[in-house]
Amino acid sequence: MRSPQVRNGNRLLFAILLVGWLALLPAACGAARAGEFNQVLSIGDTAPQWEDLPGIDDRMHSTAEWADSEILVVVFTCCSCPYAVDAEERLVALDAWLKERGGKLVAINVNKVKADLMPKMKERAEERGFEFPFLFDESQQIAKKYGATTTPEFFVLDKSRRVTYMGSLDDSPDGKKVTTRYVEAAVESLRQGSVPEKTETVPIGCRIRFERERKGR
């Protein structure tokens, strides 16, 4: 028979372990909600919405503008990143391909360095023949809400605007040896009413240049 001291010691140990487990539970739950490579969103989550983001057409744009589109592909990109530049020709082709299938492509830039500001966005769009919306978010919040960290980084959204795929455009960062087109495969799966075989890949590109947030005392 165990002595009162042993029983009390076991109870104390159990209490300590329980408190530690409860302290870790919120973090564990948060990690479960995030994707394999995305720290914020998971496949099946409803995508964050945006309102009144300025575009290269000098108009303000909100997500509701594309409410009738069966599929919406959102890409976070910029003008200065070599990977983003390498993807521009493929973006133009993807835009045309999507339109034939009832989908839309929307590009968003959040970098605030001079080489990525609106004048450069307009210049790049003119040079490359962009016919898709190219928006700018000075607050950088929409990229943070999507958990985007890279340019370019893609999100395929269904009619209900749930995330069905996120990651790279394809398996060739420079576009020279493409064998698998992840975004197009995800779109085709949606059109067929099935789940994409590949729902998440590692986005490869330049890091988004988030401004450092100053911490208060």
Structural summary, described in words:
The protein is an alpha/beta fold and 217 residues long. The chain has 5 helices and 9 strands; from the N terminus they run αβββαβαβαβββαβ. It has helices at 4-33, 82-99, 118-128, 141-146, 182-191, and strands at residues 53-54, 60-61, 71-76, 103-109, 134-136, 150-151, 153-157, 163-167, 206-207. A 5-stranded mixed β-sheet has the order 5-4-3-7-8. Strands 1-2 form a two-stranded antiparallel sheet. The chain has a two-stranded antiparallel sheet with strand order 6-9. The radius of gyration is 22 Å and the shape is globular. The termini are far apart. The relative contact order is 0.17. The model is unreliable at 12-32 (pLDDT under 50).
Distance between the termini: 55 Å
- Mean residue pLDDT: 88
- Largest sheet composition: 5 strands, mixed
Helix content: 25-40%
Strand order of the largest sheet: 5-4-3-7-8
Q: How much strand content do the residues show?
A: 15-25%
Secondary-structure element series:
HEEEHEHEHEEEHE
Q: How many β strands by DSSP?
A: 9
Annotation field: number of helices: 5
Shape: globular
Stretches where pLDDT falls below 50 for ≥5 residues?
A: 12-32
Question: Would you spell out the secondary-structure blueprint of this structure?
Answer:
Layout: H1 4-33, E1 53-54, E2 60-61, E3 71-76, H2 82-99, E4 103-109, H3 118-128, E5 134-136, H4 141-146, E6 150-151, E7 153-157, E8 163-167, H5 182-191, E9 206-207
